[in-house]
Amino acid sequence: MPLLSIPIPSTAWQYFDLTAWLRDVLGWSLPLDFRIHAYAICILLGIVAAVVLANRRLNARGVERWIIIDIAIWAVPAGIIGGRLFHVFTHVSDYFGPGRDPWSFLYIWEGGLAIFGALILGSLGAWIGCRQVGLRFSTLIDAIAPGVLLAQAFGRLGNYFNHELFGMPTSLPWGLQIESTNPAFPKGLPDGTLFHPTFLYEIIWNVVGVVVILLLDKRFRLQWGKVMALYLIWYGTGRSVLESIRVDTSETFFGVRTNVWMSFAAILLGIVIFLVQTRRHTGAEPSPYVPGREPRRSTDVDSDDTWSEHDDDAPAAAAEADPVPATGSAR
Questions:
Q1: Average pLDDT of the residues in 130-143
Q2: Residue 156 annotated as binding?
Q3: Which of 87, 143, 182, 278 has the highest local Cβ count within 10 Å?
Q4: Could you write out the DSSP letters of every residue in 228-244?
Q5: Is residue 234 part of a domain?
């Protein structure tokens, strides 16, 4: 292998054998094999990061602390199911056919979650969660959009541990080492061929996107789903390019990979949402809650975070609405 290249991690890093550890260290014998996969850990870390960031952004809008967990209970399982179904749909030959394990489509720990499927069903789960807690759906998706990009960056690191989703051959010094026994290794190429580390490209693109979207949101005070619109445009643009250089098999339509079409659809949807919502809503959201569902102001909301991050005049307005008497002590 060239000295200047990205080494692929050993397969020993793909999972931690909990059953063997309990047997060898503690002398416990379990009837089943339990393995903790690096891919699963990366996905879980991404979910936690997204939830924490969304919670902070919602708190800044005056939403109760950790109400995001009530919504995540619906959104996360739905997103995982949607992501898996969409991945299997776009990689049918990897799971069904001669010599294939008919149950392998359930082996989610081996990798294979499609973000577009996760967004579709995850959004449905989030909408149900918002209905349960009385939160505006537009408020939620704007709060969580940067966190979704952050979660995707963690997920791509999991692809690195799984030795998957690499790009075309390259001679660049940051080429990725891939073993020739890898099922996705193109036939006819010699051992030692380096490939574009598309997982790394997408990590960088997503992290930069988080910073850009947060800065634009702070500068222009975006609401009514326009932060999510920026996410769709940003991610769709990057994914359309990176998907085009991948070498793993995928379903195609008119010679173009399915996820490239989905990227184009995401860009178009983001543009439409941004334009329509800009025209429809010229002012700020009146409240992060739907009418009649606002909670009583209490310790459920941090005192420092009760005012919207988009409303610099809120403290002054509050003082005007509830002035302290000139004489006597404040109540």
A1: 97
A2: yes
A3: 143
A4: HHHHHHHHHHHHHHHHH
A5: yes
Q: What is the domain range of residue 164?
A: 40-284
Q: Give the pLDDT confidence of 74-90 residue by residue, as tens digits.
A: 999 999 999 999 988 88
Strands (E) located in the chain: 15-17, 35-37, 176-177, 194-195, 252-253, 256-257
pTM (two decimals): 0.84
Residue with tokens 């932060």: 227
The count of structural domains within the chain is: 1
pLDDT for the residue numbered 277: 97
3-class DSSP assignment, residue 322 = coil
Whole-number Cα distances in Å, 114 to 19, 152, 262: 30, 10, 11
Contact 236, 266 (CB under 8 A): yes
Q: Which helix (H) or strand (E) holds 48?
A: helix 38-60
By DSSP bridging, strand 35-37 and strand 176-177 are unpaired
The Cα 157–Cα 163 span in angstroms is: 10
Mean of pLDDT over the chain:
86
Convert the pLDDT of each residue in 12-47 to its tens digit: 888 888 778 777 787 777 777 778 889 999 999 999
CB of 143 closer than 8 Å to CB of 64: no
Q: Is residue 44 part of a domain?
A: yes
> What is the rounded CA–CA span in Å between residue 116 and residue 51?
19
